[in-house]
Design a protein that fits this description.
By secondary structure, the chain is an all-alpha fold. The chain has one helix and no strands.
Length: about 35
């Protein structure tokens, strides 16, 4: 169970990082165009 919760936390962290990266890329694209 601990491993499962750890994997869930890792997936959550990855999802947050991806969302932040996408938001940054979106800002760069909007400012670029």
């Amino acid at each position: 169970m601990r491993r499962l919760s750890n994997t869930k936390l890792a997936l959550l962290l990855v999802a947050v990082c991806v969302l932040l990266y996408l938001s940054m890329v979106g800002k760069i694209l909007t400012f670029g165009f």
